[in-house]
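In response to the reviewer comment on reproducibility (Comment 2.3), we provide here a single inverse folding case reported in full, input and output, so that an independent group could reproduce the run without further information from us. The C-alpha cells appear first.
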C-alpha cells in the first residue's frame, strides 16, 4: 500500500507543477464562470425606463417592471431617449419614441399594455386564463437543461482527457524502460493503481474547481435563484459518477497502453476506448433533451455509458433515487471487473517491449 501511495503522490506532484495543468485549469475555470453569466448577459434587461408625455402610465403585467418618468413636453422626452436616460418615450398615448429599433420585449410589453388599457376603457372586463400544469413541474426545466449541457461537456473533457494521460504515462515508462526500474521497488498492481489514483486526484481537482467556479458564477450572476431543488445532490452525484467513469476508462486505457512501446501507437491502440467514449457522449447529449426516453433510460443502466448518461439524466429531470442506485451498483461491478482485468493485462504486457503485444496472447497466457 505504501508503494501505491508513493506512486500516486509522484503523479500528483508531477502534474500540478506543470505549466500546462495550471494554464488548462485557469482557462476551464474562466470558461465555466463566463457560462454562468451568459444567461444574464444574453437575456433581456431586468427592467425598462419609459418616458411619459401627456399619456397614461400603462399597467404592465409580467415579470419585467417598467419605471415611468414624466416629461413636460415631447422635446424633453426626445432628448432623454437620445441621451439614453430612458429606453423609450410614450407620447400622447399614441406614439412611442425610440433611438433605433425598440427592444422586442419592451415593444411587446407596451403593445400589450396599450391594448389592455383600451379594452378596459371601453368597459370590457377580461379575466386572464389560469394556467395549471397537470404534468411534472416544468418551472426549472430550462435551467435543468442548461446544467445538463454543461455537465455533458465537462464530464466528457475530463473522462476522456485524464485516462489518456494514464495511457500515455504507461507507454512512456514502458518505452523508456523506466518501468523495469520501478518494478524493482513496487509491485505491478501498486504501480498501476498509484498511477490511476494519482491522475484521478488531478482530474478531481479539475472537476471541483469547475464546480466551484460554476456555482460561484451562478451565485454572483443571480442564476442560482433558478436552480432546481436538490442541487446539492446533483453536484455530489457528478463527483461520484466522475470517479466511477474515470476509474473504468483509466484502467481500460492503462491495459491497452501496456500493449505498445511507442507514443505514436497510443492513438491506434486506444481506438476501442475512444469509440466507447464517443458513443457515451452522444447518448448523454441526446439525454439532455430526452432524459426519460427509452434510449436514455436503458443507456443509463449500461456501463460505461451510465457514467455520463445517468448524471445528465439526473440533472435534466427528476429521476427516482432507486434508479440511480441500481445504475451505480452496476457501474461499480463493471469497474471492479475492468480493474482486475487491466491489472492482469498490465502485469503481463508492460515488460514486453518492442513490437505491439496482441491482447489475446496476454489474456490467454499463463
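Designed residues, in position order:
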Amino acid at each position: 500500500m505504501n508503494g501505491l501511495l508513493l506512486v500516486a503522490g509522484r503523479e500528483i506532484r508531477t502534474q500540478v507543477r506543470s505549466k500546462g495543468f495550471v494554464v488548462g485549469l485557469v482557462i476551464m475555470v474562466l470558461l465555466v464562470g463566463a457560462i454562468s453569466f451568459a444567461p444574464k448577459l444574453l437575456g433581456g434587461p431586468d427592467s425598462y425606463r419609459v418616458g411619459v408625455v401627456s399619456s397614461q402610465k400603462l399597467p404592465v403585467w409580467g415579470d419585467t417592471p417598467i419605471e415611468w418618468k414624466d416629461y413636460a413636453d415631447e422635446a424633453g422626452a426626445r432628448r432623454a431617449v437620445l441621451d439614453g436616460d430612458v429606453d423609450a418615450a410614450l407620447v400622447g398615448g399614441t406614439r412611442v419614441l425610440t433611438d433605433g429599433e425598440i427592444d422586442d420585449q419592451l415593444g411587446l410589453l407596451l403593445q400589450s399594455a396599450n391594448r389592455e388599457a383600451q379594452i378596459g376603457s371601453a368597459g370590457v372586463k377580461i379575466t386572464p386564463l389560469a394556467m395549471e400544469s397537470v404534468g411534472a413541474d416544468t418551472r426549472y426545466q430550462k435551467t435543468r437543461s442548461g446544467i445538463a449541457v454543461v455537465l455533458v461537456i465537462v464530464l466528457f473533457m475530463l473522462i476522456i482527457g485524464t485516462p489518456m494521460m494514464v495511457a500515455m504515462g504507461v507507454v512512456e515508462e514502458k518505452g523508456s524502460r523506466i518501468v523495469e526500474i520501478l518494478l524493482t521497488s513496487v509491485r505491478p498492481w501498486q504501480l498501476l493503481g498509484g498511477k490511476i489514483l494519482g491522475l484521478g486526484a488531478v482530474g478531481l481537482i479539475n472537476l471541483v474547481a469547475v464546480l466551484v467556479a460554476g456555482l460561484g458564477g451562478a451565485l454572483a450572476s443571480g442564476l442560482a435563484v433558478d436552480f432546481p431543488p436538490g442541487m446539492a445532490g446533483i453536484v455530489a452525484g457528478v463527483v461520484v459518477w466522475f470517479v466511477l467513469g474515470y476509474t473504468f476508462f483509466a484502467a481500460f486505457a492503462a491495459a491497452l497502453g501496456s500493449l505498445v512501446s511507442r507514443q505514436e501507437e497510443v492513438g491506434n491502440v486506444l481506438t476501442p476506448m475512444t469509440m466507447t467514449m464517443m458513443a457515451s457522449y452522444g447518448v448523454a447529449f441526446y439525454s439532455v433533451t430526452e432524459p426519460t426516453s427509452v434510449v436514455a433510460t436503458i443507456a443509463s443502466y449500461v456501463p460505461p455509458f451510465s457514467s455520463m448518461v445517468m448524471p445528465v439524466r439526473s440533472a435534466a429531470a427528476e429521476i427516482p433515487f432507486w434508479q440511480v442506485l441500481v445504475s451505480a451498483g452496476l457501474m461499480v461491478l463493471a469497474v471492479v471487473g475492468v480493474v482486475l482485468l487491466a491489472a492482469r493485462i498490465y502485469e503481463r504486457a508492460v515488460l514486453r517491449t518492442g513490437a505491439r503485444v496482441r491482447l489475446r496472447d496476454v489474456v490467454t497466457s499463463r
